[in-house]
Amino acid sequence: QVQLVESGGGVVQPGRSLRLSCAASGFTFSNYAMYWVRQAPGKGLEWVAVISSDGSNNYYAESVKGRFTISRDNSKNTLHLQMNSLRVEDTAVFFCAKGGEIGDTYGSDYFQHWGLGTLVTVSS
Amino acid sequence: QSVLTQPPSVSAAPRQRVTISCSGRSSNIGNNAVNWYQQFPGKAPKLLIYYDDLLTSGVSDRFSGSKSGTSASLAISGLQSEDEADYYCAAWDDSLNGWLFGGGTKVTVL
């Protein structure tokens, strides 16, 4: 069965960096777009970033553009999110999610499977 | 403020039917598929509906989705206490080149 396991969360000071990882198993990782979605404490879901199945294309939410970088290693079935210049408002549970469709047609995709999430706390 | 607009909360008695609306624009709901997610407190979201109205395997057929123009809806019929959760709509936005979520709707069973 599909498994997504996030890691790398923790407490970090504003302005510092953190790298999240998501280990995927149970499906052909290189066939699907992958996503990061976050949820601030007591708030709703916010999409963060998407990367195409081959890693050649990506998009970011305006709130993280220029600070976060999404990447993937298809040989290791792993998704990453490099987060730089972290802000207090980046405090959230970060979920990785698998796209539902083979290929990279985002307009018809969906977040089919989700990991349990990893908590990032940005605080001085 | 979410670009996809949902009511913050809806409530109904057991066995009743509730509908959650999700309003957007031509660049998102009007031109792309809408998906619906269910989330219990402290848990990861779960896909309920995709491609506007397709039910995820294993999800109760008491859940249904629909879309018309730039609005979509999630209906829950035969409401049960186990349906108490937060529900989110989501769609890709062609203008933003990004995904949008609705603000979420909390369903309460009276």
Give the beta-strand count of chain B.
10
Overall morphology of chain A? globular
Biggest interface and which pair forms it? Answer: A-B, 25 and 27 residues
Largest sheet of chain A: 7 strands, mixed
Shape of chain B: globular
Overall description:
Chain A has 124 residues and is mostly beta strands. Chain A has strands at 3-7, 10-12, 18-25, 32-39, 45-51, 58-60, 68-73, 78-83, 92-102, 111-114, 118-122. In chain B, the strands form two sheets. In chain B, strands 1, 3, 4, 5, 8, 9 and 10 form a seven-stranded mixed beta sheet that branches. In chain B, strands 2-7-6 form a three-stranded antiparallel beta sheet, with no helix packed on it. The relative contact order of chain B is 0.33. Chain A binds chain B through residues 35, 37, 44-47, 50, 59-62, 95, 100, 106-117, and chain B through 2, 31-33, 35, 37, 39, 44-47, 50-51, 86, 88, 90, 92, 94, 96-104.
In terms of topology, how is this protein built?
The complex is a heterodimer of chains A (124) and B (110).
Chain A: E1 3-7, E2 10-12, E3 18-25, E4 32-39, E5 45-51, E6 58-60, E7 68-73, E8 78-83, E9 92-102, E10 111-114, E11 118-122
Parallel strand pairs in A: 2-11
Antiparallel strand pairs in A: 1-3, 3-8, 4-5, 4-9, 5-6, 7-8, 9-10, 9-11
Chain B: E1 9-12, E2 18-23, E3 34-39, E4 46-50, E5 54-55, E6 63-68, E7 71-76, E8 85-93, E9 98-101, E10 105-109
Parallel strand pairs in B: 1-10
Antiparallel strand pairs in B: 2-7, 3-4, 3-8, 4-5, 6-7, 8-9, 8-10
